[in-house]
Design goal:
The complex is a heterodimer of chains A (115) and B (113). Chain A contains no helices and eleven strands. Helix content of chain A is 0%, strand content 48%. Chain B is globular. The chains are: A mainly beta (115), B mainly beta (113).
């Protein structure tokens, strides 16, 4: 079956611009996660959704970052006034349910470059 | 606070040789431990996980890992590596009711003929 799909695969934007990154989870998965992976680092947690609600957004670095999941399926990560330090690969993952018994399925990520 | 240390940034192993990748964690409660593999251009794939019970866990692709509470370690092993095992390997820790996985910085594995 289809896995987690992230679009675009690459995004280049100028400093100060607004970007949206999209994640299509596996159908039926109620839990959705966003992680950020900087060069040479492991993935870093940003936010977790259970259904439509953000259950834990403690990893969002500042108020320029926001994510939504209005219908409990597709999610969009939004970054305002982008900065060069935002350049990274943004990973989305979904799982059937919350909790570690439900494995995470990761997408291939969106590589964001801020020039 | 939870954290993961992978002390080896890069390891080179001959094809057919054995492999051990090190992982040390810090977690304030009973840890749930994971190993993920990331191949170039591909998403992270779960190799194996430990929650409780037998401290030696088996995963996919012939990998296994051993949980040692006294050493706060969860090292990944494979008796004989294949060229296709070349990838980046990440150890991660979480816990029950804690959806936030903390990953290590990864170990890049190179396989030589």
């Amino acid at each position: 079956g289809a896995g987690v799909s992230q679009t675009p695969s690459n995004k280049v934007t100028e400093k100060g611009k607004y970007v949206e990154l999209r994640c299509d989870p596996i159908s039926g998965h109620t839990a959705l996660y966003w992680y950020r992976q900087s060069l040479g680092q492991g993935p870093e947690f940003l936010i977790y959704f259970q259904g439509t609600g953000a259950a834990d957004d403690s990893g969002l670095p500042n108020d320029r970052f926001f994510a939504v999941r209005p219908e409990g399926s597709v999610s969009t990560l939004k970054i305002q006034r982008t900065e060069r330090g935002d350049s990274a690969v943004y990973l989305c993952a979904s799982s059937e349910d919350r909790g570690p018994n439900s494995p995470l399925h990761f997408g291939n990520g969106t590589r964001l470059t801020v020039t | 606070a939870q954290s993961v240390t992978q002390p080896d940034i890069h390891i080179t192993v001959s094809e057919g040789a054995s492999l051990e990748l090190r992982c040390n964690y810090s977690y304030g409660a009973t840890p749930y431990l994971f190993w993920y593999v990331q191949s170039p251009g591909q998403g992270l794939q779960l190799l194996l996980k430990y929650f409780s019970g037998d401290t030696l866990v088996q995963g996919i692709k012939g990998f296994e890992a051993e949980f040692k509470r006294s050493q706060s370690s969860f090292n990944l092993r494979k008796p004989s590596v294949h060229w296709s095992d070349a990838a980046e390997y990440f150890c991660a820790v979480g816990g029950f009711g804690n959806e936030k996985l903390t990953f290590g910085t990864g170990t890049r594995l190179t396989i030589i003929p």
